[in-house]
Amino acid sequence: MKIEYIKNDFAKYNFDINPQEFEFFLQKSFDDIKKDIKIKGFRKGFVNRLLCEKYFGERFLYQKAITFLVESKINEILAKDENKIMGQPEIVDFDLNKIERNHNFSLIIKFALKPKIDLCDYKNINIPINKKNQDVVVTEEEIDKSIRQWLNIAFKEQGFILKNKYCQYFFNLEIRHKNVVILKENNICFDFDNGNFNYIIEYLSSHILGMKEKEYRNLKIKFPNTFSNSKLSGNNVKIKLFLNKINVISDINLNADIINQLHLSENFPKIENLIDYFRKQLQFNKKEVLKKQEIQEIVEYLLKNSSIDISQHLLQNHISITENKIQQQLKNKDFNLMEYLQKNNLSESDFKKQMIEENVKKIKIAFLLEEIALKENIRILDDEIQNFYQNLFHSSNFNNFEDFQKEYDFNYIKTTLLHNKVIDFLWNNSSFNKNS
């Protein structure tokens, strides 16, 4: 095997294949397919190679033999240089029609080379002292605001409930009797506005329980003869009801009744339990924000203090992939690139410059993290990938696993998990966290 390096971008691995070696792969190819070969007058799988070559032509095994040969040589290359090369191999200047079994021939396999990296001292990276062991403070005002925001969502998700003193329900109502509109109201509030309207909604409450904001319901109802509204009493009517808005009152008193109203007692027996839950959640969220800032500083430190040579070929390849993704995303939104640039107030040259800067940074970060993974023997196990993949699928909106796989490439997930593992390693070894 001879190796030729091209501008530190590529490596060409040149193999001189002699007839004896090629014969080995010809025989391997025949052994692989002989069980399926059928020639008239012979039992399937019991035809010898010589007869097959006479029947199908002596070159009928060449393509499969070359495939086995290439696989073997790629494994040989990976065993020697796996940490130096990347990407998919390319077969160079090869013509199957020129191969003769009794003559030597060349097989050239080209790989892209990983960039040269001069890695800085990445252990015990020092984060600015003002962040070291920084306390996370959550105020009572923040807790109160967070709970009220959540209550606004929770009550709206619960939908219409007849006896709910914490919400106002605004309806559009149309009632027809024999195709004649006998009652119509728009954006009328169930809580305070109209006694007659309240009686109607109360009577319909079992039919509209759980009705959500912006939801329509069509009902066929017969009102009793004793109903207070003379237009409705004793009549069969058709009702169109639209819940236009659920307004959660802003000055809710946080007490035990909230727990009962939202059926939370199993998880939060007392209102204090709910408050404590939100306190811990806010503390966790603040710590995560701080951690992201700290990780960003670690990454910036790596970029600033390490050197890595990005080839033009590698950069252009990444830019092309990014451009294609952007084009596809724009296409899905019935947008083109020029419209996107105008909307974001970008010139074409500014866009290209931004693309180059972003891709250079992404490439450098990826290779630096992978170099650290190599040095520290940080790996992602198959079980970790499968568990993450399955969890991501179950939390997605995909019903079909094959469609999900097309959207979330397995290798991309594996790489992302590896990068995250390296980042956690760096964060755990950084100086601000060392004595925590």
UniProtKB/TrEMBL annotation:
InterPro entries: PPIase_dom_sf (IPR046357), Trig_fac (IPR005215), Trigger_fac_C (IPR008880), Trigger_fac_C_sf (IPR037041), Trigger_fac_ribosome-bd_bac (IPR008881), Trigger_fac_ribosome-bd_sf (IPR036611), Trigger_fact/SurA_dom_sf (IPR027304). GO terms for biological process: cell division; protein folding; protein transport. It is found in: Cytoplasm. Residues 271-426 form the Trigger factor C-terminal domain. Its main location: cytoplasm. One of its GO terms (cellular component) is cytoplasm. Residues 4-149 form the Trigger factor ribosome-binding bacterial domain. Its EC number is 5.2.1.8. The keyword Isomerase applies. GO terms for molecular function: peptidyl-prolyl cis-trans isomerase activity. Keywords: Cell cycle, Cell division, Chaperone, Isomerase, Rotamase. It catalyses: [protein]-peptidylproline (omega=180) = [protein]-peptidylproline (omega=0). It is an enzyme of class 5 (isomerase). The keyword Hydrolase does not apply. Belongs to the FKBP-type PPIase family. Tig subfamily. This is Trigger factor.
